Amino acid sequence: MAIEEKKRKHKESSEKSHKKKHKSITKIIAPSSPVTSVTSAAPTVATSFSEIVVKLYLHLAPMWSGKTMEGVNEQLNAFLMKYVPEVDGIVLAHSDVQFDTEKGKILYDSPFCHFFVTAKFLVWKPKRGTKLVGRINLQSEDHIGLLIYGTFNASIPKSRIPSSTFEWKINEETIEEESNDTESEESDEVAEPVSEERTRTQYGEWINKETGAGIGGEDGTLEFNVMDIIEANDILTVTGAL
After folding, report:
1. Does the pTM exceed 0.85?
2. What is the Cα–Cα distance from 227 to 148, expressed in whole angstroms?
3. Number of neighbouring beta carbons within 10 Å of residue 46
4. Which 3 state secondary structure label does DSSP give 143?
5. Which residue segments constitute the domains of the chain, with CATH numbers given?
């Protein structure tokens, strides 16, 4: 009985250690070169895009035998459009993949091939104090919501909208229209699509006190200062100020 119990414990410990070996698929060791800004026509203008060369330790499954590069790209694609702490930004693209050695290693009883590669990541990492431009997609009395490059979320809270320059104006006409349309909507099977302009100012909008013009102008774009950057669930949210 004692011998059987020892065998059972040894088997369980072996299975646990075997699972631990395969827990990590891809690991970024460290950026192997300094951050370099993407070249632009105006080098004096700060950019939130950077190219970073990183070194990664990959564990390639047997299914990628004979098509190694395809397997490497598959693992690198897992970083796309996610916040990666090692590069302190969101990875948008990868390129220039190079193998550090000619052959990989197969260790112990693992069928995975282990090897190092270097790759270039295009990273979006806005910095505090810089300026960004976003398109307004939501306005409320509490904040202004924006989309940067049509992808990344940004928010300007009321406390960071200068009350000396801007004020919140309630759209009274829209409220009256909605109350009048409630009865007619019951008989309509298909509702008319709501335009982007009406959605943006459905219940009101922030306006300039002097001119009375809506914030963001005709195209709804707004330049703001980056005050804080919040990382949650592999994405970045920018908090700004006017």
Report:
1. no
2. 15
3. 13
4. strand
5. 25-124 (3.30.1490.120), 131-179+195-241 (2.40.50.1060)
- Cα(82)–Cα(79) distance, integer angstroms: 6
Among 97, 94, 98, 69, residue whose Cα is nearest residue 81: 94
Q: Which residue has the tokens 């460290």?
A: 30
Helices (H), 96-241: 172-187, 196-200
Query: Which helix or strand (DSSP H or E) is residue 90 part of?
Result: strand 89-99
CA distances from 91 to 39, 59, 79, 154, 194 (A): 17, 20, 6, 18, 34
User: pLDDT for 2-43, tens place per residue?
Assistant: 555 544 554 454 444 444 444 435 667 656 554 444 433 444
Q: Which two tokens stand for residue 191?
A: 């509702």
The pLDDT tens digits of the residues spanning 168-179 come to 998 776 555 555
183 backbone dihedrals φ, ψ, rounded to 5° = -70, -40
Burial group, residue 182, by CB count within 10 angstroms (0-12, 13-18, 19+) = exposed
Phi, psi (degrees; rounded to nearest 5) at 152? -95, 140
Task: Please state, in angstroms and as integers, the Cα–Cα distance from residue 77 to each residue in 130, 184, 220, following that order.
Answer: 29, 49, 33
pLDDT tens column, 102-138 = 888 888 888 899 999 999 999 999 999 999 999 999 9
Lookup result for tokens 């800004």: 37
Q: Which helix (H) or strand (E) holds 60?
A: strand 49-60
Distance between CA atoms of 142 and 13, rounded to whole angstroms? 55
Buried b (16+ CB within 10 A) or exposed e, 94-131: beeeeeeeeebeeeeeeebbebebbbbbbbbbbeeeee
Reduce the secondary structure of 227-242 to three states and give it as a string. EEEEEECCEEEEEEEC
* pLDDT value of residue 8: 52
